[in-house]
């Protein structure tokens, strides 16, 4: 018992090594006492100029802040949305910073061309829009050949892609390249035509992807349009010229005959494929012709037509080694295409499909017309097309009546160019039917329409280019009547076009000029043509036609046409003279009109009386402004047409001297000028008519006694007006100008005095009798125009006498008329001393000064 108690005590005294701590449920355990604290505390360190935004400062960035380099990298991203956003970002960047495109265009193209075969449709479409709207227009000032060549390998790679969408889109990219650089077609013609053949041969996708097929076919049409056609018009050169203007490219690829041979070979393979493709659409035609199917079929027909036209062109140009159209090939092509013509019988056309069927039938007709130049079609087939053409022109089908104006014009204007060829190939009844339909179309269409222009071109071809076209049957006068009808419509057409359609007016004028050069202008047309220039209304006002408002080149054409009328009518000359008197007419055209009409007179197309009347009308009615000769201010000098009128006078005088026998011309001229100069015209017009007289007069004068008597009264008043309007005083500079002006207006009178002393005697007598102020002393109906009042008239009379003394020839004549001058001096002195006439003091002082001046003249004559 005692041992067990001791052992329990020892156990109680021993220590506890590990104390067990009881924990409650849900409480977090405290960390161990020997754990190491791994928490690190730090402060941010700010380093200036190290942010991403600051790195892009000054760089061109998109709206999302991406640079061009970053955008180009994103175009290769695996996510299609990122690639699309990169293309849109590049569009924004290039529009905002166009210089970026010019600096990096080659690098951009090298990166973007990879997306031509992109699997995502939206990426390809965005790439197409980027190239079309931004990149190609932005590079138009540079040579686009290198830019296009960087893309071509990738475009051809896409054309062989497994995905049909990618292949069709590749043709759209090529079409865009040809738009901006047409020579690219000829550089890759063989390869591109082979790809077109491959894509069209696999026709399983036609009905499913007609929209994409339409784009591919539109590209083919664009390429074939560049080829020369059978109309012997080099469309390649025309398109190259137009594209050079629009896109500033250089035609760096010369087109040689060897390249044409390659194109011909490929086209001969592709045409049957196109025909088969067209036939695959025929089941759709019989049901309902939707827009996409119509576009595809029309592009196919246009491609065939362009290819056939190119074949014919090469044959007509004499390239037998490249003739693709053998008889079997042409016959098979004609048979396949025309077996379905017309696509829909015209009596079954209805609704919105009417115009589409008509357009397709017209396209087939074009192919037929080109093929018929090489092979002779069967008569029944030929008549089928003739009937169709007649229906289109005469609107015999209700479908054409329901067609819109624009659509109808496009349909008809497509067929009009074939009318001359058809008319030349048919005889008898069909010739009349076609000409009747054509004439009705020409008369009914609006003046400014494309149909009218097409008709004008056809008329020129039928009348001028093919002179014997309407004369195959001499006994049939109706054929010649069509020609007269067309030509007589032209003056009315000019008036209807007015000045609002200058290009159309120029076409009509060119046709009129060509007709005149072939002696096909009828004198009856002048009555209608004068409305084109001007007409007189009942009130006497002039109504000007469109002639004055046309451009100078059109005015020149219209004037040149006048030369070819066999006899110009006086009414037409009067109408033209009214235009010459208008201030709206350019001075160059005024002198050009005189030149042409004078040439027509020399050719016997104008009567001498009408020609002289035309000249006198110009000279007598030309309005010179300002009318007052002095004072001549600087503003008046700038706006004055006095210089033009002086040149006109010189030209008229020169023409008069070339009209034939001067004595006969003078007799006609003398009477008319005296009638006109008696109507008190302004000084400039009177001076011009006097110059016309002396241009044909001789010494001694050819004036009759009656004319001398009439002219004496006119000249006395004319001289007094000249002296009144041209001042005698002034400084040295002004005096020289005054002296030149006086000489211009006085010399015609001095010439007449030198040639007829009697005329000078009568003029001095009239001046002397007019000093007393009696207006009855002057010729009845003619009065002094400017010098009013006794003092003005007396002072002007003395000035005239002094000017006569200064002229050497007239001074010698004055010695014979001392009594007349003394009579003038006594009349002036009598007026001064007279108390019966109420003369103001100021006028008496002027008269006294005139007497003092006159005394020096009389004293010199006595010596």
From TrEMBL:
Basic residues bias spans: 1-13
Keywords associated with the record: Nucleus
Disordered: annotated span: 1-37
Family statement: Belongs to the IPI1/TEX10 family.
A Pfam family that the UniProt record links to this protein: Ipi1_N
Residue ranges of every copy of the Pre-rRNA-processing protein Ipi1 N-terminal domain listed in the record: 146-208
Domain TEX10-like TPR repeats: from-to ranges: 485-768
InterPro entries in the cross-refs: ARM-like, ARM-type_fold, Ipi1_N, TPR_TEX10
Protein localization: Nucleus, Nucleolus; Nucleus, Nucleoplasm
Protein name: Pre-rRNA-processing protein Ipi1 N-terminal domain-containing protein
């Amino acid at each position: 018992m005692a041992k067990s108690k001791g052992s329990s005590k020892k156990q109680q005294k021993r220590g506890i090594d590990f104390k067990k701590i009881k924990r409650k449920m849900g409480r977090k355990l405290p960390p161990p006492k020997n754990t190491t604290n791994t928490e690190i505390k730090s402060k941010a360190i700010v380093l200036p100029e190290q942010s991403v935004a600051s790195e892009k400062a000054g760089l061109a960035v998109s709206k999302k802040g991406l640079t061009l380099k970053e955008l180009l990298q994103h175009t290769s991203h695996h996510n299609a949305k990122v690639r699309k956003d990169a293309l849109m970002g590049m569009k924004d960047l290039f529009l905002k910073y166009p210089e970026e495109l010019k600096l990096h265009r080659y690098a951009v193209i090298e990166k973007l061309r990879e997306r031509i075969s992109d699997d995502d449709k939206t990426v390809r479409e965005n790439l197409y829009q980027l190239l079309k709207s931004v990149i190609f227009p932005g590079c138009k000032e540079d040579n686009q050949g290198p830019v296009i060549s960087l893309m071509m390998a990738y475009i051809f790679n896409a054309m062989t892609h497994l995905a049909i969408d990618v292949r069709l889109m590749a043709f759209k990219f090529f079409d865009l390249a040809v738009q901006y650089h047409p020579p690219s077609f000829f550089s890759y013609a063989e390869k591109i035509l082979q790809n077109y053949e491959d894509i069209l041969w696999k026709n399983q996708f036609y009905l499913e992807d007609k929209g994409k097929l339409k784009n591919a076919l539109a590209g083919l049409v664009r390429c074939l349009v560049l080829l020369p056609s059978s109309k012997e018009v080099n469309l390649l050169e025309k398109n190259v010229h137009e594209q050079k203007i629009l896109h500033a490219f250089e035609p760096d690829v010369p087109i040689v005959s060897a390249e044409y041979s390659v194109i011909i070979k490929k086209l001969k393979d592709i045409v049957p494929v196109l025909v088969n493709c067209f036939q695959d659409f025929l089941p759709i035609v019989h049901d309902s012709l939707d827009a996409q199917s119509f576009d595809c079929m029309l592009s196919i027909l246009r491609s065939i037509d362009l290819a056939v036209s190119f074949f014919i062109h090469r044959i007509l140009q004499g390239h037998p080694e490249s003739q693709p159209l053998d008889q079997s090939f042409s016959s098979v092509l004609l048979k396949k295409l025309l077996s379905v013509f017309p696509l829909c019988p015209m009596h079954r056309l209805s609704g919105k499909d009417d115009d589409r069927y008509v357009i397709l039938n017209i396209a087939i007709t074009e192919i037929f017309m080109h093929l018929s130049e090489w092979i002779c079609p069967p008569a029944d087939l030929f008549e089928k097309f003739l009937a169709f053409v007649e229906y289109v022109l005469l609107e015999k089908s209700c479908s054409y009546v329901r067609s819109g104006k624009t659509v109808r014009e496009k349909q008809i204007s497509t067929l009009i160019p074939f009318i001359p060829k058809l008319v030349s190939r048919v005889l008898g009844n069909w010739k009349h039917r076609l000409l009747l339909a054509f004439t009705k179309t020409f008369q009914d269409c609006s003046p400014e329409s494309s149909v009218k222009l097409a008709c004008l071109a056809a008329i020129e071809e039928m009348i001028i280019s093919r002179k014997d076209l309407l004369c195959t049957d001499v006994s049939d006068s109706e054929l010649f009547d069509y020609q007269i009808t067309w030509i007589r419509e032209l003056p009315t057409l000019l008036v209807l076009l007015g000045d609002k359609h200058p290009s159309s007016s120029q076409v009509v004028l060119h046709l009129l000029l060509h007709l005149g050069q072939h002696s096909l202008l009828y004198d009856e047309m002048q009555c209608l043509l004068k409305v084109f220039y001007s007409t007189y209304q009942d009130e006497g006002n002039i109504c000007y036609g469109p002639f004055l408002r046309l451009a100078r080149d059109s005015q020149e054409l219209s004037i040149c046409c006048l030369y070819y009328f066999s006899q110009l009518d006086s009414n037409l000359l009067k109408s033209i003279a009214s235009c010459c008197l208008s201030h709206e007419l350019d001075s160059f055209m005024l002198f050009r009109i005189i030149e042409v009409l004078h040439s027509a007179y020399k050719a016997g197309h104008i009567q001498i009386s009408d020609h002289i009347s035309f000249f006198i009308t110009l000279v007598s009615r030309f309005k010179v402004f300002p009318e007052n000769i002095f004072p001549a201010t600087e503003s008046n000098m700038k706006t004055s047409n006095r210089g033009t009128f002086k040149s006109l006078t010189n030209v008229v005088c020169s023409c008069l001297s070339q009209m034939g026998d001067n004595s006969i011309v003078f007799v006609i001229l003398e009477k008319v000028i005296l009638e006109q100069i008696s109507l008190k015209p302004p000084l400039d017009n009177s001076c011009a008519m006097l110059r016309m007289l002396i241009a044909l007069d001789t010494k001694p004068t050819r004036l009759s006694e009656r004319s001398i008597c009439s002219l004496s009264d006119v000249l006395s008043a004319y001289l007094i007006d000249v002296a009144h309007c041209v001042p005698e005083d002034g400084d040295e500079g002004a005096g020289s100008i005054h002296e030149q002006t006086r000489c211009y207006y006085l010399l015609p009178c001095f010439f007449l005095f030198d040639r007829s002393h009697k005329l000078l005697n009568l003029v001095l007598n009239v001046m002397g009798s007019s000093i007393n102020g009696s207006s009855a002393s002057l010729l009845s109906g003619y009065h002094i125009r400017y010098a009013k009042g006794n003092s003005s008239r007396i002072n002007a009379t003395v000035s005239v006498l002094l000017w006569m003394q200064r002229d050497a020839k007239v001074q010698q004549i004055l010695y014979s008329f001392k009594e007349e001058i003394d009579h003038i001096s006594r009349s002036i002195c009598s007026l001064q001393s007279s108390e019966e006439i109420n003369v103001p003091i100021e006028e008496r002082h002027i008269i006294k000064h005139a007497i003092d001046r006159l005394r020096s003249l009389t004293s010199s004559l006595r010596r």
